[in-house]
């Protein structure tokens, strides 16, 4: 489960990183589709609050969260609120490549939401 959670938060961090490296998007997932969906996240108060609550920095991406940060990411109310916002952004189902790894951001976020958000979400 912790490897899964790390993959999820890495995918979110990678998605946010598209702002600084739009060339990382594959042909399957153009920045014109992703940027408008992710731009509001950087201004969302939960974005900064989640980072402060967990000590994990999404942007700029500097590596995977620690085990302690992962626990906090899954249990923090502000992080759950941020994840809800990400889910509601309805990201396109497409692949994004970052550092040689292909991520389907939407699929990973949906799986994470199933695991970590209350079932009423």
From TrEMBL:
- Span of the signal peptide: 1-27
Tell me which GO cellular component terms the UniProt record holds.
extracellular region
Report the subcellular localization. Secreted
Q: Does the keyword Glycoprotein apply?
A: no
Cross-referenced InterPro entries: Elicitin, Elicitin_sf
Keywords, A to Z, come to: Disulfide bond, Hypersensitive response elicitation, Secreted, Signal
Q: Which GO terms describe its biological process?
A: symbiont-mediated perturbation of host programmed cell death
UniProt xrefs under Gene3D superfamilies: Elicitin domain (1.10.239.10)
- Any idea what job this protein has? Induces local and distal defense responses (incompatible hypersensitive reaction) in plants from the solanaceae and cruciferae families. Elicits leaf necrosis and causes the accumulation of pathogenesis-related proteins. Might interact with the lipidic molecules of the plasma membrane.
Task: Tell me which family the UniProt entry assigns to this protein.
Answer: Belongs to the elicitin family.
Q: What is this protein called?
A: Elicitin
| Gene source species | Globisporangium ultimum (strain ATCC 200006 / CBS 805.95 / DAOM BR144)
């Amino acid at each position: 489960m912790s490897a899964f959670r790390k993959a999820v938060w890495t995918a979110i961090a990678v998605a946010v990183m598209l702002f600084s490296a739009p060339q990382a998007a594959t042909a399957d997932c153009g920045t014109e589709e992703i940027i408008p969906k992710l731009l509001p996240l950087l201004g969302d108060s939960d974005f900064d609050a989640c980072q402060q609550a967990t000590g994990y920095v999404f942007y700029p991406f500097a590596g995977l969260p620690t085990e302690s940060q992962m626990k906090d990411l899954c249990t923090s109310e502000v992080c759950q609120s941020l994840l809800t916002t990400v889910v509601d952004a309805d990201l396109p189902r497409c692949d994004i490549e970052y550092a040689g790894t292909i991520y389907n951001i939407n699929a990973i976020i949906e799986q994470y939401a199933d695991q970590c958000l209350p079932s009423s979400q």
